[in-house]
From TrEMBL:
Residue ranges constituting the Sulfatase-modifying factor enzyme-like domain according to the UniProt record: 31-273
Transmembrane portions of the chain: none
Gene Ontology terms for molecular function: formylglycine-generating oxidase activity
Source organism per UniProt: Leptothoe spongobia TAU-MAC 1115
Coiled coil location: none
Pfam families, per database record: FGE-sulfatase (PF03781)
Protein name, per record: Formylglycine-generating enzyme family protein
Xref: InterPro entries: CTDL_fold, Sulfatase_Mod_Factor_Kinase, SUMF_dom, SUMF_sf
């Protein structure tokens, strides 16, 4: 008989600040205030399933900013896709898994950037993709555990592949955590009703999220001010964070990171937007 697992999930109530950005067609985009602070970025060498490119751990001081409460939804994407073009074209309905409140996917890094550009023109605020440091800082919300809610994860808290795949050597459990289900598709944002202390949902699983940074194989000489780490190659691979419905729990960790080429599209990659603190919120 399998041994019972004592699973500890940290739960608490927090008061958070946000604003709602009005989009066309009566759609809104909720932006959560992320207070500035210094944090330890990357994973410790003792973390289960750690990969060397998650280190070395280093302190980063992140100024305050705003970040989307959820990954951009298909309704939000369509509303912004109808705004005037800045550089590139946007397909208003690109997603494989349809649903107004599901995250948009099948969008490239370039298309996510075009979304941010159109949104910026429409609102007069500076929207963009978060830097990798901003993303991890926001995901952790002042925690240092592998997941913002504790040492492990279950499919009752997030959408990821909770079953084993022996052909790939993949485990559906993480550490002492249990196996779970494999939904094989995205789920509506906020479905699990589990937010971190900054009021952000779905930072673990559902869809990978594009970041602004070019990919680097480790954090040697990485910026310490929370800014994107860029090179002169505009077509360099871009960072993605957070894991997804098709990947196992180790990929959903706060420190987990990988990359794709900026023109790549997939049914398990979406994004959320960041915004510099406005001088005043009307």
């Amino acid at each position: 008989m399998a041994q019972a697992v004592n699973l500890v999930i940290n739960k608490r109530q927090q008061r958070v600040t946000y604003y709602d950005e009005a989009l066309p067609d009566g759609i809104t985009l909720r932006m959560m205030q992320i207070p500035g602070d210094t944090f330890l970025m990357g994973s410790p060498e003792t973390e289960v399933d750690r990969i060397n490119w998650e280190g070395p751990q280093h302190e980063v001081t992140v100024p305050g900013f705003f970040l989307g409460k959820y990954a951009v939804t298909q309704a939000q994407w369509r509303a912004v896709a109808g705004l005037p073009r800045v550089k590139g074209r946007l397909n208003p309905n690109p997603s494989k898994f349809k649903g107004e409140d599901r995250p948009v996917e099948q969008v490239s890094w370039h298309e996510a950037e075009e979304f941010c550009a159109r949104l910026s023109v429409h609102t007069g605020r500076r929207y963009g993709l978060p830097s990798e440091a901003q993303w991890e800082y926001a995901c952790r919300a002042r925690t240092q555990t592998p997941f913002h809610f504790g040492e492990t994860i279950t499919t009752e808290l997030a959408n990821y592949r909770g079953t084993d795949d022996e052909s790939l050597g993949w485990s559906g459990s993480y550490g002492d955590g249990p196996k779970g289900e494999y939904r094989e598709e995205t789920t509506s944002v906020g479905l699990f009703e589990v937010a971190n202390d900054f009021g952000l949902y779905d930072m673990h699983g559902n869809v990978w999220e594009w970041c602004a940074d070019h990919w680097h194989g480790n954090y040697d000489q990485a910026p310490m001010d929370g800014s994107p780490w860029l090179t002169e190659d505009s077509e360099a691979a871009r960072v993605r964070r957070g894991g997804s419905w098709i990947y196992i729990p180790r990929n959903c960790r706060s420190a987990s990171r990988t990359y794709y080429q900026p023109g790549y599209r997939s049914g398990n990659i979406g994004f959320r937007v960041s915004c510099e603190p406005p001088g005043s919120l009307q």
